[in-house]
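worker-03 picked up job from queue 'complexes'. Input manifest follows; two sequence lines, order preserved.
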Amino acid sequence: MLFILYFVALLLAGFLAGIVGAMSGLGGGVVVIPALTLLFGVPLEYAAGASLIATIATSSGAASAYVKDRLANIKIGMSLEVATTLGAIAGALLAAYIYTHGISSYLFVLFGVILLLMLYPTFAAYERHRRSRMHKDWSTSFFQLSGSYYDEAEGKAIRYSGYRWWLGEAVMGVAGLVSGLLGIGSGVLKVIGMDWGMKLPIKVTTSTSDFMIGVTAAAGSAVYWALGYIQPFVTAPVVIGILLGAYLGSKMLQRTGSRSVRLLFLLLLGIIGIEMLLRGLGVA
Amino acid sequence: MEINDTISYVLITGVVASLLFVVAGVALIFANNGSNGFTLGEIANGHVVVGQSMFSAAEISQGIFALQGADFVLLGLIVLIATPVVRVLMSVLVFAYERNRLYAAITLIVFVDLMVAVFIVPGLLAH
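worker-03 finished. Artifact:
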């Protein structure tokens, strides 16, 4: 009976993580790691293993709906994955050096500061009410970055174009590097790269980020699998909860207004920024 | 079939298959009051007595036929991890079929990166 309660509690945590992860484009890890370590007392490396699996579950669960409904942009996602996967490989190879030389805490501080600095442009975009438009550049046509989706919240089709592909690609390279180096999900940088860098609509951004994070996490999972940090009984309820939550979250995103989605991301950006800063300073 | 529908189909198939294996595994763990010689209490221990490193690929395939719950869960997780890899491979094929050379090349690069990350990087880190 006790184990069933434990199982159901983990399942509910996964369900919540799936909804938040799918709507924000950050994946389920943001909720899973603190929930498992703080509430359930699971050791950090096993929580991180479960979180990696949770990220893949959020990605596939949410993206199956986003891709079908043309909300996530496959071309934008795939062209940016070139940099995230290369960055993740470089990060994984450099990680041992970073940890033996004690550089990792500086990187956590730097990452936290960068995220907190991004609060201002993200908030400015929230205040502006309208998406800023730019002139199409060479990358818009060369990489076929235009698209359209039907916005259920606004009740109309939204046409959009992506700009400054090189800037998005550069941010994605850093996102991949950070995830490989520090072993954390980098959905937050993916959202920044597409929202701030390429000026895509926020719902296209978060859904395309969901589409992408599964590939980055799959690239990182081989190392975790080899290390054996995946506990079947802890991971199983989290995965079941996340798959159900991510599906519900993907339906909720479609009906949620763009400003509310940006507000959710803004909130999570602040929380993750502070969390990374504290981890770097050795407080948490 | 458009690329969006193909990719969505791959993702849904992976998710449903994975979910079925994981749910079956959990049901077996509870029904047998344990799995692979461990009691339910040991498997459900949050401080981790049972780690995935105890399960080799060969053991998992045998455990499936012996109806061992933990092996079903791990097979479900392998299917889940393989899903994004399969969807990248499918996009290479669809873009090639559509004669979109730029995106066939881009997706091929991503696929090669993934293969390096999965099969070569863990070996390099071991040394």
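worker-03 released lock.
The first helix of chain A runs from residue 2 to 24.
The longest strand of chain A covers residues 146-151.
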